[in-house]
Structures are given as C-alpha cells and as structure tokens.
Amino acid sequence: MKNLIRIYPKICLFGFGAIMFTGLVAAYSHDQKPVPYHSQEEMVSMMMNVNGLPVGDNGVFIGSGKCAGCHGIDPIGSANMTMEGEHVSPTENWRATMMANSAKDPLWLAKVAHEVSVNPDHEQELVNKCTSCHAPVGRFTHEMQGGEFYSMELLQEDSLARDGVNCGACHQQRMENLGQHFSGELFYHTDTIWGPYISEEMSFPIFEAAMTSFVGYAPVGNHKVAKSEFCAACHSLLTETADLEGNLTGDKFVEQATYHEWLNSSFNSDGPSNQECQGCHMPRIEEPIVIASGYAFLPGREPFGQHWLVGGNTFMLNLMKNNIETLGITASEQNFNTVIERTLDMLQNQSAEIEIIPGEVDGDTARYTVKVANLAGHKLPSGYPARRAYLTFEMLDENGNTIFHSGKPEVGNPYEVFGNDLPYEPHHDLISSEGQVQIYEMIMGDVNGDPTTVLERAATMLKDNRLVPIGFSTLHSAYDTTAIVGAASTDPNFNKVAGIEGTGTDEVRYHIPVSGINGNVTVKAKIFYQSVPPRWTEELFSVDHPTINAFEAMYWEEGPASVEMAADEMSSTLVGMEENSRGFILGPNPTLNGWITLQNGNDVVREIKIYNLQGALIDVRWVNQTNAQIQLPAPKGTYLIEIISDKKRRIEKVVRQ
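The chain above was modelled as a monomer; its predicted structure follows.
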C-alpha cells in the first residue's frame, strides 16, 4: 500500500477528494451557504508557500499571497501544472512582471516625484492619477473607505498597495461598461472575483463555496475577462495639460493609447484575424489545468490563460532584478530571469520583421530599401512615451571595414544614437548620410511647442511615427487618439502600398555614397528597442530629489542599453564608374537582339563583367583581344558592363529592349 501511494499520489488524493466532495456537495445543497473546506491549520499551511507575498485583507482587496495559497505552486504537483510537468501557477508567473511591481518600479516612483516637483500645487491630483493604475489596491480602498488624499507616504506604508497590479486589481473590476472608462477610472466589487470560465458551461458549486470560504469572494465567470476591454481602463491614458506656470489650460493630452491602437487594427475584428490583448500577453494552453491546489478532484479548466503579462521592458526588469532587496521586491532572481526570457522572446520573435530590398547600384550611389513590419496589435513601441525603436543600416567591405553606418552609437555615449538631432530627429523616407537615422518615437510638446518630458506639460504631439499595427486606418473612429504626427503622415511608404493604407509597415530608402569604392560589400539592417533612452531622463535627473537620485544611480549602474529586435543582411558588388575617357566604341545601345560590339583600338581588353542594376554579377567573359562581341542576358532591361583592359577600367550602362 505504501508503494502504491508513492507511485500514485494523485490517484489516492483524488479518491480522498472525491469522498470529501460528496459530503461537501450535500452540505452545500442543503444549506445553500459556503462551507469551510480547509481547517484553520490547513489554511496556515497553505500560506507558508507564498514566499513573501502579502496575505493581508483591507476590507476591499486581499494580498496576492492569499491567492497564492491555491493558485501558487502546488506542493504535491497536482494543480497549476501541465501534463508535461511545467508549473503554470498564476502568482508565480506574475510576481516578477512589471505589473506585479508597478508600485515598486523606481522609474515610476521617480517620475511621480518629478511631476510633483514641477507642479507641487497639483500633488493630490497627480498622485491620485498615477496611483490609480500603479497602486490601485491602496488608492481605491482609500477612496472607498472615505479617504480624501491618497499620498505616496500612505503607499509606502501599505504592503497591499505595494502589491502593484495584483490579482484583485484586475479580477475585481466591475464588468459593466468595460472598454468605456479610461485614464485609471476603475470600479470594483468587494465580494466578487471574475474569471473567464462561465458557470453555465462548467458548474461546480463546491469550488465556489470553497473559494468564498477561503478568501471571501464569490468566483463568477464572464467572457469579458478574456477580452481586450478588460485592460482598457489603464492602457489608454489622457492627462491634464498645464502651462509653464502650472496653470491648467483645460485641455487633455493622450499620453498613451495602447487599447485604442488595438481598436484601430486588424487584431480587432470579428474574423479569424481577431486577437485579444490576452492572446499575446497571456498565451493560452489548450489543455485542462486544475487551477486550485488542495482540490485534486476538481476538473481541469481550459483554455488556460498563463499570467505571463510580458511586454518589452527588459531594461527595467533587469534593473529591478539587480535591486531586489533595495526595492523590497518579493520575486526571486529566477522569477525575473524567466520573465526576462519571455520578454526577449516577445521582442525578438513576435514584434517586428525587417527586410533589405536591393535597388540600383552605379558608380556614385548604392540604393537599398529597408522594409520594417510591425507584428504587434498596437503601435511599436506603445505605452509610456519614453520608449523608442530605431533602425541601423551598415555597409561593410569584404575585410569587415565600415563604409557607411546610420544609427551607430554616439561617441562617448553608447546608449544614445549618433545623428539624433536636437530638439528631435525628424521622420525620414530617404537617408543618404550617417547623420540621419530613423527613430520611431512620440515627442510631446508644451504650450509653446517645445519638446517636454514633463507629462503634465504635454499640450501637443510634435512627432508620432511609431510603427502602426496592420489594418491601421486614418479613417477609424479611434484615430483622434492614435494619430500619425509629423512627416510620417505624408510618407507614401508609411503604412501604405500604392496609396492603400493598413500595411503596418514602413519603407526607408538608403542611398549610400560609394564613389571610388569597388568590390564585394555586405549590408546589414537592424531594428532596436530602447525603453528609457538617456535623452528622456535629462529633465528627470535635473531635479534633486531622494527618490529621483536613487533611481538615477540604479539607471546608470544598469546601463539603458537597446535590445536588437530583428535583423537582415545581404551581399552586393560595387562597380565604380571612372571618369577617364572611353577610348573605345560600344554599340548599339540600346540593342534589340542583345548583341553589342566592343572596339577598343590598340588597347587589349582582358575581361568583361556583366552586372544587373542591383550590382549582382551575372557573367564573366575572358577576351584578351582589342575587339569583342558581347551578348547580354535574355531578359530585357538595363545592365552594367565592366570593361577591364591593359590601360583602363570602365563601366557602361547598356539597355536591352
């Protein structure tokens, strides 16, 4: 019997659970009231596995640690685990994410201090707005219990508030009017937890009774939990505008509009292309998962949405991982490593594609087009306005020496991009010098039209050429909050092909000066993502404040490096047009039958090479005589003929009609 238990613990536990289930269902049916499933001792034991997560109860919300009692790692490996043995615990997957640490995020704490320092008379409004999404458990409990001003000091003293966007912050939202409230306007239930499983589809009253008994909330299913509007209240944000003296103008500024960007995309559709926010950020497992430990008799729920909640901010994740104790974070380094790995996968395999398209190459200029595509269901980058993406384009000779490099690091500042003009770099359709670089970003302007990174001073958008999602339209009802601003709005290759919009791509033409350069070259194009570039922090770090100073030290210690998202490369051959006199006759040009005659006087022609206009070598002919007959390739078009003789080297364009 002992061996049987050792080999089949889950079967034995299921049998025991089934017996308990029979009695408890009877009790539930008889009284129609929640009945305790676990003893007090069992509850205490379950709480021992939460690894520092808060377990308190403030009358509206509970700490994530209490949720982890059932939805954390199951000690016996029955619940929150796939058939392959992978842990999919919601709390373990969540605890090292940016959402879990939103109230401990040192950049956010520093930015709140910055905004209040600029406009101290607006402290109450600023803190209320910022904590609505970063510390909703503290902010809204304070409001619901009659408090007036929720302060950053109250936040720091409250372990539940510092739980960030925890379980209840999402799952206790009221379902009515989701997708109609934004800018941190959240409304909560105090006795209900909403999940994606509809009770009519899978009724299991004993589980509802057990959860109500354990945590005091009734679990109710609603399809909106798996819909994008579940995320809308915090992921479209309008801020009040103040002038440089701190006077509110009455205007509002769209600081971020990720939800509305999704609305204005093909991801928001009724057809097979529909993809909710949760589809990428909470990837589903199509197998039944037992979602509560200690209840082995429960049926598995599917599909199961994994609480990965990843975006693209590896910089801040690494920074927090390296300052766990200082920031009071409960996640481990391994928790962070897992989230960082998933974030890199999101950035490098699910967000962007890049392609080099060769163009004409002649003696003065090599022409290429770089096509970059946004794979995300919102702008790239999206969210907080510090974020940017940029292109690099590099040409190397056959020895690896750089001939041309747009987007290279700035000398003396490896985290900034060379050529990033002041006050900001314009959008480019054509780049022909290293001092030009394509940067996809939003630039906020104050009431005077000058760039600013003070959120409350943002009055107008000076530039927004961030890559739009596929299906994006200037005619969509959400375009007023998702507009393309600046030169990108008139770029014929930005989100368009032949004048038809919605491609989710941008094409940048590179004209590289190559006069006097010959031989084989390699060209490389890359797109990089940078979440907190140095230029964004200049105004922030100009303020002397303990919270800002603490973040500044962490910022430079970590180093705000960019992350490569996608890359492409190809090889070409450069053939230079020399200016020496011809000294030969080549014709007819154009030619109808593809034959041309070369007459070179007394100068012996040793070699003839034929290239297409992209610089690709097609054919080589060894001649060793003064005159020659040359046959062009069969396809009609323009070709480059390189003639190498004893005395000179010459390139001629010839046309086969």
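The chain is about 25% helix and 25% strand.
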